[in-house]
Specification:
The protein is an all-alpha fold. Among the domains are: 52 residues; 105 residues, no CATH class. The protein contains eight helices and no strands. Helix 2 packs across helix 3 and helix 4 runs antiparallel to helix 5. The protein is elongated, with a radius of gyration of 53 Å.
């Protein structure tokens, strides 16, 4: 039985090898040659449109929607400070989570920032307002307070005649009236009608004057000065001459001449 199986196997392999030899020696079929003419060639006449992009077109795609790789930002000193403050407050108040303590710190810092801004505004407003509640760059006739420049702080050293003459020559009649009023205060102080003090007001000086006639004269001149100086309007020549004559007469009166 085994011999028969071996003989059949030998014959089978022999037939396969003969078939392979036949395939190897057989010539492949020849391909039919195809000839093309110029008529068969088609020319593409379509034009290709060049697509251009704006120079800064990439900036349109910088939003978070176009960021596909999110990187956690590095913490700066401010972030570390908030975390440090949150840890301290967390130890004191025992928040439910770290996120809750961080939220509390954010709210606390915002409140402190608002308070600081309000305090700074208060300091600026306080610096701009003097003790009488008047803006330092404004004038209030109702206060009837004399405001002096540095050159006028010691009226006893000033030559008012020269100052008045220079003011009139330059056309500054209101300043001339001011100098007349300060000159009057100087004369009154020299003759002991009042005690000169740069912090005093017109009312303070009026209270110090004893004689009724002198009180009446000083009251009118104070009104005239306040009307012209704090009125913030230009006075004409007639008004100035009337005021000038009244001040000159008062200066003579208080000079005991």
């Amino acid at each position: 039985m085994n011999k028969i199986f071996l003989i059949l196997s030998f014959l089978f392999f022999l037939s396969i090898s003969n078939a392979q030899d036949t395939l190897a020696t057989a010539e492949p079929p020849k391909a039919t040659s195809v000839k093309y003419t110029e008529k068969d060639i088609q020319i593409d006449s379509d034009t290709i449109e060049t697509k251009t992009f704006p120079k800064n077109f990439k900036k349109k795609y910088t939003d978070s929607d176009f960021v596909y790789e999110y990187k956690t930002p590095e913490k700066n000193w401010w972030d570390h400070f908030k975390e440090w403050l949150a840890s301290i407050l967390n130890n004191l108040f025992r928040f439910s989570s770290n996120e809750a303590s961080m939220n509390f710190v954010s709210i606390l810092l915002k409140v402190l920032a608002v308070l600081i801004v309000v305090f700074v505004i208060y300091l600026i407003a306080k610096a701009l307002i003097n003790k009488d509640g008047q803006w330092i760059f404004g004038k209030d006739a109702n206060k009837k307070t004399i405001y002096y420049s540095d050159i006028e702080k010691n009226i006893h050293l000033l030559d008012f005649e020269k100052l008045i003459a220079a003011s009139i020559e330059s056309g500054e009649k209101r300043i001339a009236v001011r100098y007349y009023y300060l000159w009057l205060l100087k004369v009154m102080a020299q003759n002991h009608y009042i005690e000169w003090d740069i912090e005093k007001t017109n009312s303070d000086y009026l209270y110090e004057i004893q004689g009724p006639a002198h009180k009446e004269e000083f009251t009118y001149l104070s009104y005239l000065y306040n009307y012209i100086w704090y009125g913030e309007f230009e006075i004409d020549e007639t008004m100035f001459r009337k005021a000038e004559n009244r001040f000159k007469n008062a200066i003579k009166t208080f000079s005991n001449e």
